[in-house]
Write a structure and sequence with these properties.
The chain is of the alpha/beta class. About 35% of the residues lie in helices and about 25% in strands. The chain has an 8-stranded mixed beta sheet with strand order 1-2-4-3-5-6-7-8, with helices on both faces. α5 links the parallel β5 and β6. It is globular, with a radius of gyration of 17 Å.
Amino acid sequence: MAREQIDLTTSDGVLDCHIFEPAGAGPWPASILYMDAFGLRPDLDVMAQRLADAGYVVAVPNLYHRSGAFPPFDPAEVAAGGPERDRFMGMIRSIDGDMVMRDTAAVLAHLETRPAVRPGPIGTVGYCMGGGYALRAAGVFPDRVAAAASFHGGSLATDRPDSPHQLAGRMRARVYVGAAGIDPGFTDEQRRRLDEALRAAGVRYEIEVYDGAQHGFAVHNHRVYDRAASERHWERLLKLLHAELGPMTGTA
């Protein structure tokens, strides 16, 4: 795995970010992968490397950089409730859409300086809380983001001021939303609201429900990882990026 860690200076402090590049000669289109709520860890590196192997420079920013170093979460303890879940929810609440978009601006500026990155539009993909940030980036940076994908993303169409559906009118990207069939964080009401917002704005989009899959199904080694659903998500993601960013090199 060819991972490079870089530190980017932002108005909120130093943002650490993992960069993955394909093997061979570039330049390559770039993508930003927004982490799920469990934060950066080796399993996300595996996923980022798989995306890089398909022909994309992949940036994975640490969205929790403002909190400094912290012990990794135990998913079983988080699911059980108690202090570990309180700590987990506190980390999620420590960031918001505006903060993450400031991080995104720093990542975009860095990608422009990398010789391996092909000039032009990029893609965004996010998991869990990162799904909303991937869609939000399409609205905040419409001239940069040509493809945006959310997988088992939560809170995609709520009354919060940073809900990504409110930016539908600014999006120029093609959008794909892979919703878990079992996901209390993305209800039928939210799905309808998101569908209405994207349709009214003329966004090219698809919302697909992965029946039977639980929130977290796509993430490698997640406690509810669903191999069949995850492989389907890879197929959909790479098809989207291929269509909007250009031909892929290598295999997934």
